[in-house]
Amino acid sequence: MATPLLELSNVVKSYEAPGGAAPLRVLDGISLRIAPGDAVAVVGPSGSGKSTLLNLMGGLDRPTEGAVTLAGRNLAALTDDELAAVRSSEVGFVFQLHHLLPQCTVLENVLIPTLAPHAPGAGDAVERASALLERAGLGGRLHHLPGQLSGGERQRVAVVRALINTPKVILADEPTGALDHASATHLADVLAGLNAEGITLVLVTHAHDIAARMSRRFELRDGALSEV
Ligand SMILES: Nc1ncnc2c1ncn2[C@@H]1O[C@H](COP(=O)(O)OP(=O)(O)O)[C@@H](O)[C@H]1O
Ligand SMILES: [Mg+2]
User: Fold this and answer.
1) What stretches in the chain show pLDDT beneath 70?
2) Ligand 2: distance of its center to the CA of 111 in Å?
């Protein structure tokens, strides 16, 4: 494999358990290399650590042991401030719930990540946001409020928001989990289209038809990841 975009080496994540119980070892030594342009699906039972894994990949959390390297940088060696800078320029997160601000328009919501102190710079952000929204089938919704959109439309806004700082990787945590089948398929089309243009995609999903569209599939179970 060429230089991986994302590499996990023997990653362990334990959570402290309340009441002095033994810590919960959610990830038990995971190693994984993701090349630029890969489309990766992660499946696994509820509680198996999928969200934990995605959060570590994107520097939202730090491993208990092991190393995470993203775009050539060992995340463990970074200060919190440097980590925030890497997150905001290299990573786009999409969650199961869209987390749009209800009082802001679609366009304003998409522009919010450009306000982060480490963002690559607003520059032509409004133009870029409009073009991306158009491509996601939301060209007629720029000035709507989230409450005026369907669930599928709101999730597509969340994807565009994740793209606005031109990240190298999209980390999506069950992004279609709350959508009907048609909306889920439309969202998967948008994600697959972005991947076809070169963005790396890591997608946690329970939807087998969507997982089947990814170039690589992994199952997380009992703290271990296996390629399936
Ligand atoms: N911040 C936390 N503190 C303690 N335990 C946690 C924390 N986050 C997750 N867990 C536990 O870790 C396990 C994996 O959680 P998670 O990564 O959310 O799983 P999944 O996304 O696969 O459903 C669960 O048992 C959960 O209760
Ligand atoms: Mg989860």
Assistant:
1) 1, 121-122
2) 26
